[in-house]
Design brief:
Blueprint (H helix, E strand, L loop, with lengths): L1 H21 L4 H23 L8 H22 L5
Helix pairs in contact: 1-2, 1-3, 2-3
Length: 84
């Protein structure tokens, strides 16, 4: 069940971040990939700079994944501006 929840959070975070950063999503699989990588990146950022991994339930996990996905898309935009 945790894996399904992780994928669902990744999908939601990736879709929201894609719409905010570029005005559109990246398709079903693309949104999941962006969200899942963003979740790992967000968890690392929160643990490194705030001393917490963002534990606190599904909502906090979604916020951490969303922030990570936005950072990821920002970096992608800097590296390859025409792709994001």
């Amino acid at each position: 069940m945790n894996f399904v929840l992780f994928i669902l959070i990744g999908l939601i975070a990736g879709a929201l971040a894609g719409r905010i950063v570029s005005g559109h999503g990246f398709g079903f699989v693309g949104d999941i990939v962006v969200g899942v990588i963003g979740a790992f990146l967000g968890g690392w950022l929160f643990s490194t700079f705030l001393g917490t991994a963002g534990g606190g339930g599904v909502l906090m996990s979604l916020v951490v994944a969303f922030i990570g996905a936005i950072v990821l898309l920002g970096v992608i935009r800097l590296v390859a501006p025409s792709h994001a």
